[in-house]
Design goal:
Strand order of the largest sheet of chain B: 1-2
Largest sheet of chain A: 5 strands, parallel
CATH class of chain A: Alpha Beta
Shape of chain A: globular
CATH architecture of the largest domain in chain B: Orthogonal Bundle
Structural class of chain B: mainly alpha
Structural class of chain A: alpha/beta
Distance between the termini of chain B: 23 Å
Number of domains of chain A: 1
CATH topology of the largest domain in chain B: Arc Repressor Mutant, subunit A
Order of helices and strands of chain A: EHEHEHEHE
CATH class of the largest domain in chain B: Mainly Alpha
Distance between the termini of chain A: 28 Å
Chains: A alpha/beta, B mainly alpha, C alpha/beta
Strand order of the largest sheet of chain A: 4-3-2-1-5
CATH architecture of chain A: 3-Layer(aba) Sandwich
Oligomer: heterotrimer
Strand content of chain B: 5-15%
Helix content of chain B: 40-55%
Number of domains of chain B: 2
Shape of chain B: globular
Number of strands of chain A: 5
Radius of gyration of chain A: 14 Å
Largest interface: A-B, 15 and 17 residues
Number of helices of chain A: 4
Number of helices of chain B: 5
Strand content of chain A: 15-25%
Radius of gyration of chain B: 13 Å
CATH superfamily of chain A: DsrEFH-like
Chain lengths: ~130, ~120, ~100
């Protein structure tokens, strides 16, 4: 059963496909999403592949005190970024369920992925 | 962790508070309400209770999200905390002319909002 | 049509699997940079069902010595062809 209750649509789709902490992709992706939203664009996020690790509960700062991204994810709603799509196959492949995640998400099945991509005017893949 | 060097100092209650080139407090823990008063006075502003309640919202936002808000989320946060009458751009523009998100963050002792150009 | 760009070899990264899952029937896939390693006959099975819409960039094939090893199921395009493809596409999506 699909969890997508309205056709995916929006100005920007920001795809997160890299794990947190290993590089700057996640932070750059979130910055782009926030800038877009601050300028009044309607922004959706899609977490896929190792990007799903970014929403795992219980993350802390890095060994050198690098900021975690949990507080930034929680801030998304203040920027009216409310569509947080997650590829359910990527979750399952990593032994994760919704209960392991920081925030409520919209699960996307493989056949629905292309619908999410097609519904946005611009796509940024990180 | 200070990410920028202080380029000038402002004396408040016998302490020298370091400011970055844009006038933001470098050490977030150095901020006190008196620092806000001093920064406002430098710009010829006087802080009223209406200013202070917004500065409190800004500080609470930073405490929760570790980021200073851009204009849109600031409006939303003020609306949630102080009611829809105050959660309007117009009200915030009147209190903090030019750029409420930037001016407010500076007075509240927060870093510059990163996603606010 | 969305044009997906892939610059990783299927032998070194699993990102091609994510691309394939995100593609529609009408979308195209362009292999560039190290992505062109997926165009050789021994690797092209990683991209099933893409006849007529699987492309590889000639310049990247040639620089890696793969021009003669590219599978017949892959359409070779040069930089001009690549530009024309991106103009045909509603938008491009880069995968890396």
């Amino acid at each position: 059963m699909s969890e997508i209750t309205e056709a995916p649509h929006g100005d920007l789709l920001v795809m997160l496909r890299h794990a947190p902490h290993g590089g700057l992709w996640l932070r750059e992706a979130l910055d782009l999403a926030l800038v877009g939203a601050a300028f009044g664009q309607s922004v959706s996020l899609l977490l896929m592949g190792d990007g799903v690790w970014a929403l795992l509960q219980g993350q802390g700062p890095g060994p050198l005190g690098q900021k975690g991204s949990q507080s930034t994810f929680e801030m998304l709603e203040m920027y009216d970024i409310e569509r947080l799509y997650v590829d359910v196959d990527s979750l399952e492949a990593r032994g994760l369920t919704r209960d392991d995640l920081l925030l409520p998400v919209i699960g996307v099945s493989t056949p629905e992925l292309s619908t999410v991509l097609a519904g946005h005017r611009q796509i940024f893949n990180f | 962790m200070a990410t920028t060097q202080a380029t000038r100092y402002i004396a408040v209650e016998g302490r020298d508070i370091g400011l970055d080139p844009e006038g933001f407090v470098v050490e977030l823990t150095a901020w006190t309400p008196a620092v806000a008063e001093a920064l406002a006075a430098e710009e010829g502003r006087e802080l009223t209770p209406e200013h202070w309640e917004v500065l409190e919202v800004l500080r609470a936002f930073y405490a929760r999200y570790e980021n200073a808000p851009a204009m849109r989320p600031l409006v939303k946060a003020v609306s949630q905390a102080l009611g829809p009458d105050k959660g309007r751009s117009l009200h915030l523009m009147r209190l903090f002319p030019d750029s409420p998100a930037k001016v407010g963050a500076r007075l509240a002792g927060l870093p510059k909002p990163t996603n606010c150009l | 049509m969305l044009l997906h760009l892939l610059n990783r070899a299927p032998s070194s990264s699993s990102v091609h699997q994510d691309v394939l899952r995100a593609m529609r029937e009408e979308d195209g896939l362009m292999l560039i940079e190290d992505g062109v390693f997926g165009a050789v006959s021994a690797q092209v099975q990683h991209f099933p069902g893409l006849e007529g819409r699987l492309f590889a960039l000639r310049e990247d094939l040639e620089s890696r010595g793969l021009a003669g090893r590219c599978d017949a199921r892959v359409i070779i395009v040069d930089m001009d062809g690549f530009v024309a493809l991106t103009e045909d596409a509603q938008r491009t999506v880069s995968w890396f």
